[in-house]
Amino acid sequence: MTSLTSDPQDNLQPGWRRYFSFSVDHKVIGTQYLLLAFCFFLIAGLLAMMIRAELLTPQLDVVDRTLYNGLFTLHGTIMIFMWILPANVGLANYLIPLMIGARDMAFPVLNAIAFWIMPVVGLLLVSSFFLPSGAAQAGWWSYPPVSVQNPSGDFINGELVWLLAVALSGISSIMGGINFVTTIVKLRAPGLTWLKMPVYVWTILSAQLLQLFCLPALTGAAIMLLFDLSFGTDFFAPFSGGNPIIYQHLFWFYSHPAVYVMALPAFGVFSEVLPVFARKPLFGYKTVAISSILIAGQGTFVWVHHMFTSATPNWMRMFFMASTMLIAVPTGIKVLAWTATVWRGSLRLQTPMLFCLGGIVMFLFAGITGIMLASAPFDLHVNNTYFVVGHFHYVVFGTVTMALYGGIYFWFPKITGRRYNEAWGKLHFILTFIGANLNFFPMHPLGLQGMLRRVASYAPQYEGWNVVASLGAFLLGMSTLPFIVNIIISWNLGPAAGANPWRSTGLEWSTSSPPPVENFEELPTITEEPYGYGRRESSVSSL
Ligand code: HEM
Ligand SMILES: [Cu+2]
Fold first, then answer.
1. Is 391 in the pocket of ligand 1 (CB under 6 A)?
2. What pLDDT sits at residue 535?
């Protein structure tokens, strides 16, 4: 065993001030990512409330069409690039070195640089609303030809700022990918073989390999599109001979796998939380671990399911329909394993567990509508309708945001050294679960009845379900209040948590809360399999 000395480079500021400093400690950076991402979650949520306020009635009454386009474009973009992705990176940054028994990430300075790019990305996106020509209006996918039209003639316009922001966030994420993959491959503690790694580490490895492999396609495409828009090139602009379909391929070559970059860490959180609150080992650990790599591998061969209506030849539709449906296999394995893990367990329904169970239920629903959409004949009918919007919100909110909440509650005692308030946590869960289903379920019947997405006004026949959805959205907006109050008060005044309040067997719980700068007093040596609940219950309770 190697003993560790503290690193003079860590420059830890006292108290909250450290989160505003250029720290290279992965725990500070992880928390910085989480705090930044949550602020932008609130901003994008506010944009969603404005969208839902407009959709409360069939007429155009709250905003004008130009602003509405900017609202949904920036809502989607900020939610993805400034909430889900960086929040996942933040949690992983905090946890990965602790879970593999390392003292930090492989490249701490690169880690800090990758983080500090993100506030710039967020500011660029939000500030674009204040440009004379307004924010980008081409939707979060920014398809040409809409995205290369510049009716205002201004050189600095919303679309240009949008493209810069997306390219920058891509550069930050590629830096992160290099760092995570190197850390997991090279810095595992002695004895931590591949098949002893916690499932969360497997999911982050899979997700970050996808970032490295696929993200350059989007970052490159965004830069090329920027040239088309601002410097008159014609890669994708159809009026001068460019090919807009190539842009769609490059966009989805990343943005489908991006769904797994967002969802795999959520699967990791479910796999960590369930065994602790069911007091049972994770069912089928090895299969669950390997299925993450399978999902990532298969996930790079399905992107054309977003392009069934883009003049795609039939053979291609058939291929991508089949490849998409095949992903249900490794995904189904996970759902089965989670079900078997809680089956006949002595469940403790505390807040992290509630969010994970709620998230799995909503993921099951998203999986079913996903299989429906994978079928090309069905997709031809509902493409560009609210059915699609409903489906992916069950993924990005119902699954990933719920898992993030669950993970934040679960690791809150580790990060802060304090306990959160359980009653406020449960209230938060109930409001969120009801709000989310009221908000996103009605989108499915609306889509099946033909209501198009990205419209600020609609035919009166759609009003009923839209009222339900908007009320659900406002409830969802309010649901964040007990969370914010709980986090702020508990972080300052909560009772001390101790090293291992959940009596978990995970390595991150074997060090103090919060962990010392160098994470472990001594580098641990790993001898046991993960998830020793039940098997090792007696030794655990002596902790
Ligand atoms: C907080 C609750 C949320 C509400 C009330 C909400 C509501 C909506 C609505 C109504 C639309 C459709 C706008 C339209 O087509 O006119 C939309 C689009 C979208 N939302 Fe959300 N959403 C929420 C959370 C999220 C989250 C967590 C994500 C995470 C990625 C997300 C990502 C998107 C994306 C990518 C679009 C598509 C934008 C586009 O069409 O270009 N949303 N949202
Ligand atoms: Cu996809």
1. no
2. 61
Mean per-residue pLDDT of the chain: 94
Give the number of the atom of ligand 1 that is nearest the alpha carbon of residue 456.
16
DSSP string, 454-479: S-SS--GGGHHHHHHHHHHHHHHHHH
SS (H, E, C) 139-173: CCCCCCCHHHCCCCCCCCCHHHHHHHHHHHHHHHH
Separation CA 528–CA 192 (nearest Å) = 9
Residue 523 maps to a domain = yes
Rounded-to-integer distance, Cα 314 and Cα 322, Å: 12
Range of the domain at 413: 25-541
In a domain, 224, yes or no: yes
In testing the pocket of ligand 1, which one of 54, 73, 75, 386 has its CB within 8 Å of the most ligand atoms?
A: 75
* pLDDT surpasses 70 at 8: no
d(CA 179, CA 174): 9
Question: Could you report the per-residue pLDDT of 148-181, keeping only the tens digit for each?
Answer: 999 899 999 999 999 999 999 999 999 999 999 9
User: Before 514, cis peptide (omega within 30)?
Assistant: yes
Ligand 1 pocket test target in 55, 389, 440 with most atoms within 8 Å of CB: 389
In a domain, 19, yes or no: no
Hey, which of 72, 260, 402 would you mutate to test ligand 1's pocket, going by the most ligand atoms within 8 Å of its Cβ?
Answer: 72
Q: Considering the domain boundaries, does residue 9 fall inside one? A: no
Query: What does the alpha-carbon distance between residue 441 and residue 386 come to, in Å, rounded to a whole number?
Result: 10
Going from the Cα of 279 to the center of ligand 1, the distance in angstroms, rounded, reads: 36
- Measure 305 CA to ligand 2 centroid, in angstroms: 6
Q: How many domains does the chain have?
A: 1
* CATH for 171: 1.20.210.10
Ligand nearest to the CA of 458: 1
Tell me if 75 CB under 6 Å of ligand 1.
yes
Closest among 282, 252, 397, 264 to 330, alpha carbons compared: 264
Ligand 1 atom 32: residue of nearest CA: 76
